[in-house]
Each structure stands twice: as C-alpha cells, then as structure tokens.
C-alpha cells in the first residue's frame, strides 16, 4: 500500500453495483408512488399496465446507459456523457442544475421522509414540530456524509445491508399479497378496468410518474472509475437490477391493490395501511423498514453525486479543490462536504413542491438528452470502441416517449417549468464570466483557498495514471 497512487480505489464489485442501483430506485418510492399512478389511471388494471410498460421503457434507457458507460469509461455519469456528446456548455448547465437543485433537493426530501417515518410511530396522533423533523433530517445528512467520507468500503457494505432489509420489506408486502389472493380475495380484480380514465393528459402524467419512479438506473455510471472490471460489471448490474425492479414494482402493486383496492387512494401511508390489514403487528415494523429504505436511497445519492461534482471540478467547471481526494480515505471529501452544505440549506424552505416538479422535469430532459447521445455519438464518433452496442430502436423509442411526456408538465405546471428554465438559463452568464474566462482576481484567490482546504481536509489532487 506504500506505493499506492492517490486515486479513488476500485472497490465496487457486482454485488455493490446491484445494491447501489436497487437502493436509489426503490428508496421509499415503492411504498409511496403506487397511489399517484392509480389516481391518474383511474383503474386497477390501468395502473398495472403503466407499471409494466414503464419498467420495459426504463430497461431500454438503462441499456443505453450501459453502452455509454462502457464506451466512455469515466466517472461523472450524465455530466460526462453530455460533455462528450454536446460540448462543455450543455454539460455545465447540467452540472449547474444538478448541484443547485437536483442533488440538494433530493437529499433534503429523502432525509425529511426518514424523519417523518421515525417520528410518526413514536408520536402517533400528535403534532410534530417541523423544526424537529428538520433537525433529524440535518443530522442524518451529516452522518451519511461523514460515513461516505471516512470509508467507501464500509459505505458499500452498509448499502448492501440496506438493500437486504429493503428487499425483506418488499418480500413481506408481496408475500402478504400472495396469501391474501390465495385465500380467494380476488374481488378487486374482477372489474379491474372500471373507472379507467379516458383523458390523454391523465394517462401521460401516469406514465411520467411511472417512468421516473424507476429513475436511478444511471447512478452506477457516476462511479464507473471505482467499479472493478467496469466493462463487465456495469452491464451485468443493469441486466440484473432492471428486470428485478420491474418484477418487484408489479408484484408489490398487485399486492397493494389486492388488499387495499381503491381504498389506496385515501391512504397517506400505503405500506402501513397494507400491513395493518394483513397483520396488525406489522404496522409497527413497516414505518421502520420504509425509513431504512429511505436511508439506502439517501446514502447512494450522497455517494454518487459527489463523483459528479468531482468530475466537474476535474474538467474545470467547478473550483479545483472539489477535484481533490483525502490522502488517507481516498474519498472526495471536499465535494461531499460542499454538497452536504447545499443539502442543509434546502431544509430551510417550508415547501419544496415546486422544486420537486422542476427537478423531475429538468432531470428528465437531461436523461432524454443522454439517451439521444447514443444515437448522436454513432454519427459523431462512429469508430468509438463500444463493448456494448444496443439496437438503435431502443434509444429512439425511449427518446420519443420521454420527449412527448415532457410536454405535459409545461401545460399542467407552467410556473414551475418557467421558473426552472430561468434557473437553468442563469447558468449561462456564470459559465461565460466565471468558467470560460475566469476573472484575474478570482484566479489569484483560488490557489490560496485551495491550500487552506488542502490543510483543513487533508486532501490533494489525484495522481494521473502512468
């Protein structure tokens, strides 16, 4: 270990890759999202149709990322692919949106969800002070930032544990549904198409919600440099995860609908109400399992987003200190702490609803742009080595479908979409005044700040390969 280069270690195997993808996709979504899809489609069979179709479409998107990840083997995920396909300005705008809004908002929401699931069983029926929730959320963000900074291997083992617990909760849901159906309780499916909406807008929103409930299959690409044998393990992790996620989502929804039926529309905690109806004692365990599932998603988001920040700094789009790693732990400590501070700031607002809409729309746009990069790079760089080469009809179907769905929020939530577009456009003057041509005063100040942070966090720039 004496001659080890100062670089982030390759510590992620196939198991860690699968656990990482499952952790971010499931999060708490499998316990929350089904209600919204049922509400939009209006019928039981309609909602199941959406979950199956979205699972297939998400698999197409994930396979596009498998091609990009094995052809462009560098950490940074979407940021790196946009940079390679479209140039520095679009890549910076993605980074601008991700760092200012996507990442801190997602972290804040998951941390608050964890706090709610911890506090509700303890103070059932009582008013919970929002400040209390925010303090717990802030503590958990700080804790997982520290864990990710201190030991990557321990973090991945913890993620494996979270994934196992999360799958155990899902097995309980699916098992309970199977037993319920085996006892002859199939009445909810006998008229399953009753109430199906004829509104194209409602169906579009249902598909929009479904597709992006599966989002997260691209997060392993953010850490491809730390993946052992990425040409093999990246694709295998995707091949294993996406079919498993699709099966789990469909089976979990069948269970929910078998037990709760249309009563699911009036519940605020699907998994808890499901558990109460199956076996009362499970209603105490389920919030704990949902909280743990949320922790798994938060841990993955903190881990992967720091690599995106690291990659952006390495390319000169962010301050150079964010491209430094700790000399003992080999982790990007400055990036982790920087994103932690932004996430804590996002806990201050009382309502994040408009930001959630903006995040969903803008992140969906950039995901569509990345999948289109598969088609564009076939033309732009035809001789690029591609260990995995998907059929072109896959990115075509994914891009056309998601681009069509992006029209819906423009009509239903115009203020949030316009506000989000303005935030993105604000990145243009930042890019041209601070990134493309850095002012002399800032250029002179940067080395001093970098040295202070190097001493404070015991970090240094990574060493290049020979």
For the record, the count of structural domains works out to: 1
Percent helix among the residues?
over 70%
- Order of SSEs: HHHHHHHHHHHHHEHHHHHHHE
Q: What is the helix tally?
A: 20
Shape: globular
Mean pLDDT: 87
* CATH class category label: Mainly Alpha
Main sheet attributes: strand count, strand direction, barrel closure: 2 strands, antiparallel
Distance between the termini: 17 Å
- Which residues sit in consecutive blocks of at least 5 with pLDDT less than 50? none
Protein name: Y+L amino acid transporter 2
Transmembrane segments: 12-32, 44-68, 89-115, 127-149, 161-183, 203-224, 236-258, 278-304, 325-349, 355-378, 390-408, 414-434
Subcellular location: Cell membrane
GO molecular function: L-amino acid transmembrane transporter activity
List the helices and strands and how they pair.
Layout lengths: L13 H13 L2 H4 L1 H8 L2 H28 L6 H9 L1 H35 L7 H21 L1 H31 L4 H4 L9 H12 L18 H31 L9 H9 L3 H33 L9 E3 L6 H13 L7 H28 L12 H13 L1 H6 L1 H12 L1 H9 L4 H18 L1 E3 L5
Antiparallel strand pairs: 1-2
